[in-house]
Structures are given as structure tokens and as C-alpha cells.
Design goal:
Blueprint (H helix, E strand, L loop, with lengths): L6 E4 L2 E4 L20 H14 L2
């Protein structure tokens, strides 16, 4: 399964910015692409406008 999520890196831990449908302790592979806050906000607004 391939799913893209946004996360914040804090204190050595990646914290998802939305719910993630995975079982506890599920091992995942992470590819990291940094984004600036402006592009992240624009992406979130676009997603909100397209849902419902």
C-alpha cells in the first residue's frame, strides 16, 4: 500500500498531521520530502475544498 501523508518532525519523532489507518507498531518505510508551511497550507486548503 502506498499512501502519502504530511507529518511534523518533533523531538526525534514523526507526528502525522491527519489520522493514519494502520495497526499499532506497524513497520513502514518513509521517504522524506520537506515542504514549507505556505505550500503545506495551500495543499490542505485544496484537500478541504475537494472533500464533500
Amino acid at each position: 500500500m502506498l499512501t502519502a501523508i504530511h507529518a511534523i518532525y518533533e523531538n526525534g519523532v514523526f507526528r502525522p498531521m491527519q489520522p493514519v489507518d494502520l495497526p499499532e507498531r506497524c513497520e513502514v518505510e518513509v521517504d522524506i520530502r520537506t515542504v514549507n508551511r505556505n505550500s503545506l497550507h495551500a495543499h490542505s486548503s485544496k484537500q478541504s475544498n475537494h472533500q464533500g
